[in-house]
Amino acid sequence: MHDDETLLKNLAREELHLASINKRAIAMFIDEILVSLLFFFMISDKLSTLGTPEAVVAYTQSLMLYVLIVKILYQALFVALYGATLGKMAMKIKVVDHDYFDIPSWRASIIRSVMRVVSEILFYFGFIVAFFSPLRRTWHDKFAKTLVVDA
Question: By CB atoms within 10 Å of each CB, which of 60, 102, 115, 143 scores lowest?
């Protein structure tokens, strides 16, 4: 198990810099917009056939599980394959394993993605902890043993 001080020393040795909270927040916003647009285009034809606002609300509520699954898949695939989502790429930050500072494993990427969605469901509480962490780690970073650094 690594303590924060050891990880900070290892980051310095590898000449890596933690991504700022601002960069992470903007990357998250970009990713949320992209996933939302994807869903909008997927369901826009169906929405136009629904007659009432109540029917639209009922239909969109019925899709919530699918939205969560797509969010998990999006995050897991991009982090496991590239070390970053499209939002993180745009902000020039990446996710790394806290032991080797390399792209996280599939296992770590999936854990991170699931815990990220759990944090969202819990009113983003898992994100708020990053403000109080010297390593700017969220719940999903801690569970997956990852860090977010400048690319």
Answer: 102
